[in-house]
């Protein structure tokens, strides 16, 4: 066996080992929607002081019948229950342990938290379901308890923690990042560089579509946070006392977030298109161009140029960090997402070509 073959086999072993499953235990431990134990998957690397905690996405539900359909009729048991979770989970994208697939984070301690609370990772209640059933919305507590559990597994020795998430998980990052940073500070006697990485979580606050209640994000979000007894970003919710749902829009909460955030966003986000009810419109280039301009302007006007990063491409898609391909296949000004992340983290030498804020000026589809 040649040296190169040995290294290849070693990396295959790392992938095959995957991440181990851990359930949150205790009388008051948070649960999934159906009351089954919440938990996480973890792959430790004691030689690394860098950690990534990834919050999975997967939409949400905001009233009993909708949540019932989510658990039964739509056949998505994994987003409401842990009963089918396997003992091992393979890592991909940000959580891949293969260097060629994940150059920036392949050696980090990897944590994957499955999404089973249907509440953008901000709920804190047990609500009434259909009939006599109850539904647990414990997303906020799941994040907190996983972080506490990880402190005893090496997180207390971390130099840097990236709290990442896609879609609903990205919204969860924006709401929880400062709270997680404060929690770690209260348990660790050293400075930990806590940062957020959000993927496809930039929801635009748009006017309601006439005759379509579900197309009014303000109304839907207001109903949702009440149903979940949501724990929103503290400073933002104090600022929007009468309209707390406004904090679920990234452009509003961003100005209150203390920790550095990197935004990965498709300018023609397909969930935003759905939210705006565009499936009933003429799906033409004029609409896509308008959406791209609005998305780009919203991001540009919200990020803090002293601490935040952005990679916003003119493509119609939704999410990307959970798989390897977008890290290297999409480029803006000849820079990949991986390179922009490296510049934002300070891993690459800062030069004129090292850009941590890249946004497509082209507003048509690539």
From TrEMBL:
<dbReference type="InterPro" id="IPR004963">
    <property type="entry name" value="PAE/NOTUM"/>
</dbReference>
<dbReference type="GO" id="GO:0016787">
    <property type="term" value="F:hydrolase activity"/>
</dbReference>
<comment type="similarity">
    <text>Belongs to the pectinacetylesterase family. Notum subfamily.</text>
</comment>
<dbReference type="Pfam" id="PF03283">
    <property type="entry name" value="PAE"/>
</dbReference>
<protein>
    <submittedName>
        <fullName>NotumO</fullName>
    </submittedName>
</protein>
